[in-house]
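Input structure tokens:
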């Protein structure tokens, strides 16, 4: 089965060849500092061809994700390019920009986002080298709903107290 997705401006698209995926919420403090733009009110979203202003984005209590085998994920429009001399790599429109963060594990979390609209796209975690963590808000065809079931919540130790555990989801204090 092919699952597709994109950033908000359409400059970057991707495809996942997988029949299933792990539906996960992550409450880690890094994920709380980023939010999928699809979850923002329309008044806060970027207009086409408007460059990202990082001061206009906000964080959230968690990210919703489809965790897929890394070999099943492919950028179909736009191409990731990196400049190793800088931790943030701003590139031309249609190219995923990366930002590396050292996670609680001491390993690198490589975040990919659109440098034009700012949409969070996916993350590659050194601690999960065989998987890609795709931000659910960018998925097409209703897949942002994660098929109506959350399998696991990660970093529940950092979950805000005003949020309850998702019934039936495995509760992991950190990465399981």
């Amino acid at each position: 089965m092919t699952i597709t997705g994109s950033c908000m401006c359409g400059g970057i698209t991707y495809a996942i060849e997988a029949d299933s995926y792990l539906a996960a919420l992550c409450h880690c403090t890094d994920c709380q500092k980023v939010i999928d733009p699809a979850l923002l009110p329309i008044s806060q979203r970027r207009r086409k061809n408007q460059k990202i202003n990082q001061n206009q984005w906000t964080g959230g209590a968690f990210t919703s994700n489809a965790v897929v085998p890394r070999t099943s994920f492919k950028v179909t429009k736009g191409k990731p390019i990196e400049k190793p001399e800088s931790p943030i790599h701003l590139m031309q429109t249609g190219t995923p920009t990366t930002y590396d963060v050292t996670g609680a594990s001491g390993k690198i979390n490589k975040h990919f986002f659109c440098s034009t609209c700012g949409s969070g796209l996916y993350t590659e975690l050194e601690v999960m080298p065989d998987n890609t963590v795709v931000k659910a808000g960018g998925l097409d065809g209703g897949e942002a709903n994660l098929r109506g079931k959350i399998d696991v919540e990660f970093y529940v130790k950092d979950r805000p107290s005003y949020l309850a555990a998702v019934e039936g989801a495995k509760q992991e204090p950190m990465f399981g």
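Residues 61 and 160 are 7 Å apart (CA to CA). The chain has one helix and eleven strands.
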